[in-house]
Amino acid sequence: MCRKITRYNPGLYSKKTGGNFGNIKSFRSFAPQMEMKDRIKQKADELFRSYGIKSVTMDVIATRLGVSKKTIYQSFADKDELVDEVVGDLLTYNQVCCNKDRAKAVDAIHEVFLAMEMVQQMFENMNPGILYDIERNHPQTFQKFLQHKNKFLLQVIKENIERGKKEELYRADINTDVIARIRLETMMLPFNPEIFPKSKFNLVELEQQLIEHFLFGVATLKGHKLILKYQQHSKKAK
Questions:
Q1: 10 Å Cβ neighbour count for 68?
Q2: Which of 51, 76, 101 is the last residue of a domain?
Q3: Phi, psi at residue 170, to the nearest 5°?
Q4: What is the pLDDT of residues 35-66, one digit of tens each?
Q5: Is the separation of the CB atoms in 203 and 128 below 8 Å?
Q6: Are the beta carbons of 137 and 57 closer than 8 angstroms?
Q7: Same domain, 82 and 184
Q8: Are 38 and 122 part of one and the same domain?
Q9: C-alpha 96 chain-centroid distance
Q10: Model pLDDT for residues 129-164, shown as the tens digit of each residue
């Protein structure tokens, strides 16, 4: 599982293959550039999470890194490309952690509690307006996020519900497709500032409340008892 990783590593799941990576001598000459690119993404991710994307300019990122803006533009054509790569790395990290947690989980409810821990780490100190910024100002990246949400996450939720039914932890009478889509959309509610203003609500606590609400809504009596058991373990672990 990815619980021990407090931050994802930008570039860790890069899809670049071939080219200079096929030659050790070329790779060594290319490594410093890649190191700087990853430093830029890491700093951008940190600033985006704290202040939102719109308010963080390339000048701000350069200043925080102690480099010139020209150095950043040697790795990224513009802010759109930087945002796209930072978000792309985050989505890949999310998929890797989800798949590891699903494989490790002893049952469907345990899988959801593992996901809850991942959510706490990913959303810690995250500005909830970040999703709104992406939707309004970076449409290409937002489409990438929607694909992740509507394909990968939806499938993960559906499979978790079906697993819970087989284990008799979730009610057999629920419609998997309907409940999965409801769960998917409620995941997005904490990012809506009109419903949950940042000044009044904590993003991690909101997501935790919504996850528990989902679990108790679909659980059988057997599942209900197991939820309470996992809740006690979680409180003791804190």
A1: 11
A2: 76
A3: -110, 150
A4: 999 999 999 999 998 899 999 999 999 999 99
A5: yes
A6: no
A7: yes
A8: no
A9: 10
A10: 888 899 999 999 999 999 999 999 999 999 999 999
